[in-house]
Amino acid sequence: MRNHRRSPLAIICLITLLAAHVSASVQVEDVRLWRAPDHTRVVLDLSGPTTHKVLELANPSRLVLDVSDASLAGALTDLPLDGTPIARVRSGIREGQDLRVVFDLSADVNPKSFQLAPNERTGHRLVLDLFDAETSKQPVIAAPKKTVKKADTRRPVVVAIDAGHGGEDPGASGPKKLREKHVVLQIANRLKSKFDTSSQFRPVMIRTGDYYITHKGRRDLARKNQADLFISIHADAFTHPSANGASVYALSTRGATSTMAQFLADKENAADLVGGVAVSDMDDVLAGVLTDLSMTGTLDSSLSVGADVLGEMGKVAPRLHKTKVEQAAFLVLKSPDIPSILVETGFISNPKESSLLATPTYQDKMASAIFRGVQRWFKSNPPPGTVFARSSSGERLTERTVKVVRGDTLSGIAAKYAVSVDELMRSNSLASKTIKVGQVLIIPESG
Ligand SMILES: [Zn+2]
């Protein structure tokens, strides 16, 4: 009798407790959104693992994301939807305990979704990638120039500029919440404009905004654009804030040349985990040994272009971390046929270097140094068929000139074209630094 009197209540209590527990089992703590040139990424931060389903519905076109046993902690109103195929996002609870998020679409997309286990920097995540229908198969940044004059088959040297990290992966952080992903994109943009001023080069930006690209994706984009050189730009952190100095890295097919090189390679290689890459698309982090023999020649080139870049950086950086190019197994440098270097512009964890790295002046100095190093190297190592190849066989390079406009100064023009004021004065036989509006100046090849 005792049992009969207690059981129904106990069961009801148990059911209520279970229900309460189940309906709150997974919290969606935050929803973030990143726009890339070929897709839109939505990331849900979860309090734990769950199951989910994606449904595509027509008339009107929309995408439904059902997350089991979940509830939404915040609002969905602050998502940056501009430039995305998503017109509106709304949410509701389905069957008492499932979270339903509805994306109203303004263009066709190919969705892909996956969940990620926690890592050092993030918790459980659910990633929804909406690939733009037209470009989902061929994410090409810029079509290579096909038309050349019949008499002139020389082509510019293609330089792939890779700003590290992006989107979900902020990279390292410095004082005042300075983020590596922002600093390196700024330096990369400045470097691009240096190359843009020279007809000898065609720069290609691997990352153009705040979104993540896998290591493999970065290498693929460089190859698709037939790059002659790949430069990955970083500003990493170390455990000790005192660590400082700029450095240049090339791939190692054996071990790392120092513990710092190993430390940085490990950290960079883990970026795919932070950036949010489906396990099936992940580069093999354990692939330390490279069997492709063509690597050897490529590696020699990487080391020698790296040395020229490091030499120029030494003239503008307060200090170099190491005076020679270091090596470690960086996944992003693993292209077998494209010389590839990773430039650490400084330690963002060092208070002094962090504040330098944030200034336009220093960013510009770094970009000029990298540009000069690269230009110097291609002059002595011209790839066949490029403007450099022709010039070394005696033919004169296309002369660059610039017309002075109001507000120009000699030092300003020198900085813009990455040449020294002395060189500029010499090649124009100038006796003083005074220039006149309308005057035409010859821009010398630096180095
Ligand atoms: Zn980095």
Which descriptors apply to this entry?
447 residues, alpha/beta, Aminopeptidase, 6-stranded mixed beta sheet, 5-stranded mixed beta sheet, disordered N terminus, binds zinc ion
Brief account:
The protein has 447 residues and is of the alpha/beta class.
What can you see in these coordinates?
It is a single chain. The protein is an alpha/beta fold and 447 residues long. The chain folds into three domains: 22-132, Immunoglobulin-like (Sandwich); 157-388, Zn-dependent exopeptidases (Aminopeptidase), CATH 3.40.630; 399-443, Membrane-bound Lytic Murein Transglycosylase D, Chain A (Roll), CATH 3.10.350.10. 30% of the residues lie in helices and 24% in strands. The strands form four sheets. A six-stranded mixed beta sheet has the order 11-10-12-15-13-14, with helices on both faces. The chain has a five-stranded mixed beta sheet with strand order 5-1-2-9-8, with no helix packed on it. A four-stranded antiparallel beta sheet has the order 3-4-7-6, with no helix packed on it. The longest helix is centred in the N-terminal third of the chain and has 22 residues, at 2-23. It is elongated and about 80 Å long. The termini are far apart. The relative contact order is 0.11. The structure holds zinc ion.
